[in-house]
Amino acid sequence: MNRSRLSIAAACVAALLIGGCASLGGMAPEDPQRAAEVASFKPVQPERWTLSNGLTVLYLQDNELPIVTGKLFIRGGSLWATDVPTGSVSAMGDQMRQGGAGALSADALDNELEKLAASVSSTMSQEFGAVAFASLSSDFDRVFSIFSDVALNPRFEPDRLMLWKGQSLESIRRRKEDPSTVASVAFMQLVYGTSPYGRVAVEGDVAAISRDVLMKLHERLVRPDGAILVVTGRVSREQVERAVERHFGSWRARGSQLPPAPPVNFTPKPGVYFITLPFSQATVQMGQLGVPRLTPDYPQIDIFNEVFGSSGFGSRLMVRVRTELGLSYGIYGGIAPGVAKGTNSVFLQTKADSVYPAIDESIGVLSALQSAPPTDQEVQEKKEAIRNSYVFNFDSPADIVARLAKLELLKYPADYDQTYLPKIEAVSPPEVSEVARNRWDPSQFVIVVVGNEKALQGLEQQMKQGNSPLSKFDLKKLRFESAIVGQ
After folding, report:
1. pTM, entire model
2. Is the separation of the CB atoms in 174 and 180 below 8 Å?
């Protein structure tokens, strides 16, 4: 990652506030009380203005290198387009750039950007889309014009769409070759059901995506209402204002906000779901529906995740299941808050004859945290790890402004970054145990296992034992074709 002198200074200032530049020099903070001082660290704030059509602009000058970067964040994504073939919004995001734009054909656009040593990209996801550019300062006006056409005037050329469809179909056909993909797709479908959060594109969806579908989606989703444009680099505010007004000033507002994201009106059925595929090792993903973003206990959840399974070799899952018992090649787990409801999950890979003990021990790690809090030292180590990594959210001017835009887009509190670390510092070990008890219920787990017949037979036999935590679960055999999970 490139780091300017300004970004190093900003990171060091933040680190000094929380313990002597620990994140940069590797030294542990000696005075935990200093961590609270991070509240006084405020990254440099961009200049802000809003166009009459609702587009907000965040601008931050950075003269260190003769480069300008920018990104347009657009509210809305596939969660607001459930009436079109699954994958259509992702296709639209890709083809805004790849399918040509404005007066430039797809090939001409590629050639022009190559000649300018510039880049323009586009993407769309569940909640928002982004169109980005990077150029030399001397080429700002030309590249910004291309960037605006990619955002507002995509051509969606049929040849490029056909190429995308061919690549997507091949990717779908190869899903069965990756057990991690199979387990993840099956888990999401079993947990979210037919709701938009569990939808996965299959061959029929890709075949049904047309240029007309993309054009209509673009008209519906790409709108200035609530959109945020960030620009940083060696460029004056006057230049940016002129370019923005010229290319985005006439962008028509829709005059309405997007409705709330769709709810999750589905209750998963607990059980063990086995997908038989000829892999020498078994893959497991298990868990349940979780919480939305920013529940009151989100700092406690973050500490819980570090203790339980998201901190690599320092997590309890890794120490117990992999290091001490040798039951897994790799394992991680935690709570991932979502838009409406996220997921709590544990993912692991193990030998065919170790599926049951690996599952059993993973649940045992969770049960131990439910029964007793972690030690003070354990919690302090996780707090330190969070503190030492958090400053890198502000690694460069571009990172600072993009982060502000994304937090605003996703409706985070305005003081989120100023209050996060003090809230983390206030978390106590008993509160971590409360998260384990209140947010997890192994009796409601959906457990997906992908493996061969040997793994299936061993699991069936061990589940019949009366003292097994899985003895009350039904074991169902499922098939996997592209993404459809069925009996």
Report:
1. 0.89
2. no
